[in-house]
Amino acid sequence: MPTTHLLYLHGFRSSPASTKARMTAAAVSQRHPSVTWLCPALPASPRQAMDEVLRATADWPLATTAVVGSSLGGFYATWLAERWGCKAVLLNPAVHPARDLAAHLGDHTVWHDPEQHFVFEAAYVDELLAQEIGHISRPERYFAVIAKGDEVLDWREMTGHYPGAAIKLLPGGDHALSDYDQRLDAVLDFLDLPAA
User: Closest Cα to residue 167, out of 74, 100, 87, 91?
Assistant: First the structure.
């Protein structure tokens, strides 16, 4: 069934103003205007972030819902896809963010708006641990775009976490997927969005 409701989840220190989020939003709006789109600003607390997402999507038809997640958003997207049984597109997804972010406690600014500050607390590491998915259940529901040149996350760990999934492994690239405009069509194709 085509995707009628699409959720986009940004990464750590990112926001709905990220290049990939805005690019995806524009493409969905222009090419698939009937699709319900949501790209919320996620709070620093992982538990609060997912609680807010679940409340905002409580009336969505899960059979035709899909989620796209970048970096930490990819971690959240995996948690949701396993919970909802829906499709997920992962863009350089964080696999073990509790381990990786434990060294980043304290005050941070948002990349796209340095005026915005948030505090990443020790308790949030435990919240991330509680959300870790050991093994995905249905790899055919997943499509990952992973860059070998990612300077933040290990591409081997990312690909290893999604055995059997459709994976576009880029020989170079970077964590931000600066060439996302060249990947967007593949992302939208996988999501099977209804034509305008």
Answer: 91
